[in-house]
Amino acid sequence: MxxxxxxxxxxxxxxxxxxMGGFSxxxxxxxxxxxxxxxxxVGALGPDRWASVGVLQTTGQLAAVFVAFGWGATGxxxxxxxxxxxxxxxxxxxxxxxxxxxxxxxxxxTVLLTLLxxxxxxxxxxxALAYVLPALGAGWYFTGIARPGAFFVxxxxxxx
Length: 160
Known about the structure:
160 residues; flat; mainly alpha
C-alpha cells in the first residue's frame, strides 16, 4: 500500500496541471506581446498603415482557416488516439494536404489583398505568405501528444 505522500504518485497527479500551464504559457506569450506591441505599431505606422495591417491579418487568418483544413479542431484527439508509431505518418499526410492548400490559397489571397490594399503588390504577397503560413504549423499535433514544451518552443516562440 502506498502512502499519499508518495512522490511518484504526486508527480503523476500534478502532470495535467503542468501540461495545462505549459500550453497556457504559449497563449500568455502571444497575448502579452499583442498588448504591448499594438499601441507601439499604431503610433509608428499611423492610422492608414495600421488599417492595412488589419486587412492583411484578417484576410490572411480567414484563408488560414481554409488551409488548416480542420486539423486544429480534430487533429489533437485523433493524434492522441492513434499509436505513437502512426503519429508521424499522420502528421506528414496532414502537412502534405495543408501544403497543397497553402500553395493554392496564397495566390488567391495575394490577388484579393492587392485589390483591398489599392495595388500594393509587395505588401499583398508578403502578407499572404506570412499570415497564411501559421496554418502549416504543428500546434494541434503537439497538443495531441501532450507536449506543451514543444508547442511553446516550436510554435509560440517563432510566432512571437
